[in-house]
Amino acid sequence: MRFILKILCWNTDDAVWMHWSQVVTVGISLFRVETLEEMSQALTATPSEYEYCFMYLGNESFSKDVEDVAKFCSKFPNQKKVVFPNQLSQSAALRLFSVGVNGQCAPYIGKEQLSLVLSVIDSGEIWGGRAFIQQLIQQSARPEITSNNALEHLSDRELSVAICISRGLSNKQIALELEITERTVKAHLTSTFKKTNTKDRLALALLIQTQNLVH
Question: Which helix (H) or strand (E) holds 158?
Answer without folding.
Answer: helix 156-166
